[in-house]
């Protein structure tokens, strides 16, 4: 009896031991996902290791990123890779251990030559045993690798403890990870990461979502990635703010300045749901301002001088009613009304950290956009960029990638100026970086049920785009204390070999402004400058002076604003025409001609009357500044009178050509065309005068707004909006235009005209093509030149009534 009982007990124990042994046996699959370490932060699915290695090593973006995980691994573990021979898909996992060391784990299908340790120079091989598994320990160059084959899978890690956890089946079992891993992909490189601790800056860490899976496309000119991010309902995550909201079309690129540092935008279709989601995320009861119910996009912009938050409205009239309820008018800038905010203005803090928080001093409206700017400088910058179309939507580097972006997204980040910030860098498997030749990186999230689609693109701008960015950069906007009189113009700076800007205000103060916007000096004059300032070098030493007249004085000033002796010269009778400057042989033996009604006075560079010039007086008042035209080896001086007589004289003032008819002179200067002199009369008849005095005429059949100018081989006419350059027609938008001006700079010829109604400046080349980036904002005739001596043209023009603008042409 006892024997039978002992047998039954023994049998029961054997069965129990067998069951316990079965429970301890680990059932492994062939799925590589089941071998991923439990705390892996970044996992890369690699179809072909050598192909990805070659693509990544030659990628222009990854070569500049800070701490790129995969690239660093490929470079640092170069010897180890010589021993690894995966035959198919592999996983490369990265994680930090408690000792703050980043370790890797490599997982692939096992085969006889998956790892050949003796192909690694100076490698030492040891065998360890753990939990009945043989671990191959390889030591080389003070590095270690621990490898094991578990059934049909080979695993190697730089951490012995991580490998032992995998042997014990302590692996990643999070269902969100498994869902991200199982998404169908087609590209050779897939990145699976945890965007739950994004270090946006030193003081801000964001839990965006639980997992992201991105197909990485390594391009010859950069990177594109597409995939999804997955959130978790049990934990407040930033992505959940967009739950139950439909992505809307992004319009912010129309107002984001192309030289901004960064911009972010969120869209939504229901402000009430957005408010509820924000309250759940922040765990508070903050209520959004009613104005948020009238808009569909909120944009945050970071500029070099400050920040702004912008609302885009689909119905600006309704939004405008809310906008007007908390604003008081404070002034204007370029005809845009600026407002001071009251205490009832919107609070943007509930949108943090999606949107940057900042103080707001100025608000204004631009079409469908309502802007809240940190200060006046930010406001003026945004207005100027918008009016000049110097915004992201019009930048060539944006046009290069816009077709690869989603038109609508819930949350989009624009990184400009080569910045890869804390939002984008983790999706590239790197740290925050500054990269060259990458003017734009875009990261988009489009929410869809319990996940969001991700789209990332960062492409190097091509050489042709860098040479012609299609951008006009406003270098500065300098405001004078008083309104401008006349128009700004360039004046050569012999020290910088660039250009400064000379401009006079209504109080007759002359200002000289550097190309960086600094007022170098001011000088009180006794009246308004007649015509343009003329540039001379009376000392013949390469240092330029300003020559000009007011109604009572002939000035010559050096670049420091000091009079050059024996000037200035005072006149008791008023001067009636701008200063005429003749340099017959281009040898700086200047002749200065001043006009007083019927009288002309010719001075040399020493301020003395030129005795050899015998012509002193006309019969009637002189109606145009005296002119000098050379044809062949002959010089002709032309003096037009009110009675219609045209005096064509020699250098000494003797009549050289007798003209037997009179003209009704217009404001158009007399020009040389071929071997003839051209007069455009007030009634728009074109008279051609030969060197023998013969006159032919042609009725032009043009409007009263007709202009005619010739410089060298370039002839330009403008009839209302019809511009002709050497006969080639360019049809400009309808407007009221200034007379065309012709400039030759950097060995190329350009034409400028300004529509004074729309306040738009156009610059065209000699072939009649409007330069990319134009028109820009301006309110008068513009001057063109290489102001900064950088082989890039610059343009100066009047802006507001007291504003001097300088643009740089890329």
Explained architecture:
- This protein has about 800 residues and is mainly beta.
- Helices cover about 15% and strands about 40% of the residues.
- The strands form 13 sheets. The protein has an 18-stranded antiparallel β-sheet, with helices on both faces. A 4-stranded antiparallel β-sheet has the order 27-57-56-55, with no helix packed on it. A 4-stranded antiparallel β-sheet has the order 28-29-30-31, with no helix packed on it.
- A hairpin with a 3-residue loop joins strand 29 and strand 30.
- The longest helix is centred in the first third of the chain and has 23 residues.
- It is elongated, with a radius of gyration of 38 Å.
- The N terminus is likely disordered.
């Amino acid at each position: 009896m006892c024997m039978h009982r002992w047998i039954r007990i023994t049998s029961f124990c054997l069965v129990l031991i067998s069951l316990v042994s079965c429970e301890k046996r680990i059932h492994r699959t062939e799925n590589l996902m089941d071998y991923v370490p439990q705390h892996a932060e970044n996992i890369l699915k690699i179809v072909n290791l050598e192909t990805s290695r070659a693509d990544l090593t030659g990628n222009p973006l990854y070569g500049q990123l800070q701490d790129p995980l995969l690239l660093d691994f490929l470079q640092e573990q170069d010897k180890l890779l010589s021993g690894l021979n995966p035959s198919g898909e592999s996983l490369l996992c990265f994680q930090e251990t408690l000792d703050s060391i980043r370790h890797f784990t490599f997982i692939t299908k096992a085969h006889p030559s998956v790892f050949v340790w003796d192909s690694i120079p100076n490698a030492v091989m040891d065998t360890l045993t753990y939990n009945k598994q043989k671990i191959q320990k390889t030591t080389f160059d003070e590095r270690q690798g621990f490898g094991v084959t578990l059934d049909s899978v080979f695993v190697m890690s730089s951490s012995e403890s991580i490998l032992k956890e995998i042997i014990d089946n302590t692996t990643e079992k999070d269902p969100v990870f498994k869902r991200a891993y199982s998404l169908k992909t087609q590209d050779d490189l897939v990145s699976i990461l945890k965007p739950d601790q994004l270090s946006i800056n030193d003081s801000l860490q964001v839990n965006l979502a639980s997992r992201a899976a991105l197909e990485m496309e390594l391009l010859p000119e950069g990177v594109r990635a597409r995939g999804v991010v997955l959130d978790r309902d049990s934990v407040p995550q930033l992505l959940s703010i967009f739950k139950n909201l439909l992505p809307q079309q992004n319009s912010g690129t129309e107002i984001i300045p192309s030289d901004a540092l960064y911009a972010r935008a969120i869209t939504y279709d229901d402000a009430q749901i957005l408010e509820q989601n924000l309250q759940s995320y922040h765990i508070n009861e903050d209520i959004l301002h009613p104005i948020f119910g009238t808009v569909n996009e909120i944009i945050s912009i970071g500029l070099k001088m400050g920040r702004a938050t912008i609302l885009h409205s689909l119905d600006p009239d309704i939004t405008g009613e809310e906008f007007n309820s908390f604003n008081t008018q404070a002034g204007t800038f370029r005809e845009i009304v600026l407002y001071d905010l009251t205490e009832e203005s919107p609070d943007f803090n509930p949108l943090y950290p999606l949107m940057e928080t900042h103080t707001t001093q100025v608000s204004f409206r631009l079409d469908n956009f309502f802007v809240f700017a940190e200060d006046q400088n930010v406001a003026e910058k945004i207005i100027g960029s918008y009016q000049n179309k110097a915004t992201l939507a019009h930048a060539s580097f944006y046009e290069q990638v816009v077709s690869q972006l989603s038109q609508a997204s819930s949350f989009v980040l624009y990184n400009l100026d080569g910045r890869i910030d804390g939002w984008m860098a983790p999706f590239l498997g790197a740290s925050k970086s500054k990269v060259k030749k990458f003017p734009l990186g875009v990261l988009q999230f489009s929410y869809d049920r319990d996940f969001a689609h991700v789209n990332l693109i960062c492409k190097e701008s091509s050489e042709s785009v860098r040479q012609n960015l299609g951008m006009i950069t406003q270098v500065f906007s300098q405001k004078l204390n008083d309104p401008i009189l006349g128009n700004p113009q360039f004046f050569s700076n012999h020290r910088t070999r660039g250009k400064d800007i000379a401009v006079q205000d209504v109080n007759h103060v002359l200002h000289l402004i550097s190309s960086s916007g600094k007022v170098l000096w001011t000088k009180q004059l006794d009246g308004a400058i007649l015509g343009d300032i003329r540039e001379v070098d009376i000392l013949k030493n390469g240092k330029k002076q300003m020559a000009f007249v007011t109604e009572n004085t002939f000035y010559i000033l050096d670049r420091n604003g000091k009079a050059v002796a024996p000037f200035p010269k005072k006149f008791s009778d008023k001067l009636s025409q701008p200063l005429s400057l003749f340099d017959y042989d281009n040898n700086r033996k200047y002749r200065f001609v001043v006009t007083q009604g019927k009288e002309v006075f010719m001075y040399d560079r020493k301020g003395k009357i030129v005795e050899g010039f015998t012509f002193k007086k006309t019969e009637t008042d002189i109606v145009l500044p005296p002119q000098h035209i050379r044809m062949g080896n002959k010089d002709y001086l032309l003096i037009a009178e009110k009675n219609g007589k045209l005096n064509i004289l020699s250098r000494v003032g003797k009549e050289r050509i007798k003209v037997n008819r009179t003209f009704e002179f217009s404001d158009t200067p007399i020009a040389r065309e071929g071997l003839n002199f051209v007069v455009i009369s007030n009634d728009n008849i074109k008279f051609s005068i030969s060197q023998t005095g013969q006159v032919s005429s042609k009725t032009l059949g043009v409007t009263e707004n007709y202009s005619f100018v010739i410089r060298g081989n370039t002839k330009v006419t403008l009839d209302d909006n019809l511009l002709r350059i050497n006969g080639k027609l360019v049809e400009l938008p309808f407007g009221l235009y200034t007379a065309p001006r012709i400039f030759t700079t950097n060995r190329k010829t350009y034409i400028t005209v300004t529509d004074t109604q729309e306040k738009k400046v156009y610059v065209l080349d000699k072939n009649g093509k409007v330069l990319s980036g134009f028109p820009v904002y301006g309110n008068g005739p513009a001057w063109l030149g290489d102001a900064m001596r950088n082989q890039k043209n610059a343009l100066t023009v009047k802006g507001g009534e007291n504003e001097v603008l300088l643009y740089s042409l890329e």
